[in-house]
Amino acid sequence: MTEIPLFLNEEYAKRGISKYIFWNPAVAPHLCAFGTTGSGKTYGMKLCLAKVSKYELNSQFYIADYKGDLDFTFLQGSDRFFRFMDCEKALNEVYQTLQKRQSGEDKKRNMILLYFDEWASYILSLDRKRAEEEKQKLSTLLMLSRSFNIHVFVSQQRVDSQYFGASRDCFNFVLSLSNLSKEGKDMMFHDYKDMMKSDRKRGTGYILVNGTDFAPIIVPTISNMELVHEYIRDAVNR
Ligand SMILES: Nc1ncnc2c1ncn2[C@@H]1O[C@H](COP(=O)(O)OP(=O)(O)OP(=O)(O)O)[C@@H](O)[C@H]1O
Ligand SMILES: [Mg+2]
């Protein structure tokens, strides 16, 4: 079983020891990153995606960039890269892949990863009926996809559960960057909220895995962004 090193444990880093927080897709299938604007969500998620691509050699990514600014221009022209309102196609294609794997039509079990940057803003942009439909689709993915090796990464500013319907608890790898609001801590880190300090800066925060493994983290600095883009591009195109 692949375990992918994503973030550095800050407690250890303070003492000069590089101890990684690992993502185990079979144990904590879906990841959600929260943080205010500029807290380093997209930067951190790019690093995560590059590592997944590097460790999971057959993984295939669908990237939905709702904001549609310059962060993902390096993916321009890739079939599995979607911007702004086209993001609905990313969700739909991954949803259909799940259905094909469920029905037996698709026998492959390579890793499929949907990354949705600014899911909450996407939901807010839709009328009520469409928003419910999209939340329903995401919920189905979150609840049924693990055994089919389909995974969802989401990052967004807002923490409220209204963006996920009933399935928010399915995100079992929860990352907060910079300082969360009191409500945010209450909602996503309830049992650990008193351990969360307010000194978090860009690129630092907390991780909670399966509701029990809590740690302060640092997003490692990317020394070669081109290489990170290369790894992501590989997984979007293969
Ligand atoms: N860990 C880090 N080390 C060094 N620079 C970082 C780090 N995290 C973020 N940055 C830089 O900080 C800026 C903001 O980061 P980023 O765009 O990832 O924030 P964001 O949370 O996605 O913001 P938004 O919600 O507006 O999209 C970027 O220029 C990025 O390169
Ligand atoms: Mg961003």
Summary keywords:
binds magnesium ion, alpha/beta, about 240 residues, 10-stranded mixed sheet, Rossmann fold, globular, binds adenosine-5'-triphosphate
How can the largest sheet be summarized?
10 strands, mixed
Q: Please report the number of helical segments.
A: 7
Low-confidence stretches: none
| Domain count | 1
Distance between the termini: 21 Å
Q: Which small compounds were modeled alongside the protein?
A: adenosine-5'-triphosphate, magnesium ion
Secondary-structure element pattern, one letter each = EHEEHEEHEHHEEHEEH
- Multimeric state of these chains? single chain
Name of the top-level CATH class? Alpha Beta
The radius of gyration is 17 Å
**Could you estimate the helical fraction of the residues in percent?**
25-40%
* Proportion of residues in extended strands: 15-25%
| CATH architecture classification | 3-Layer(aba) Sandwich
Could you tell me the CATH topology label: Rossmann fold
- Let me know the number of strands: 10
pLDDT average, as an integer? Answer: 96
Pairing-aware structural class of the strands and helices? alpha/beta
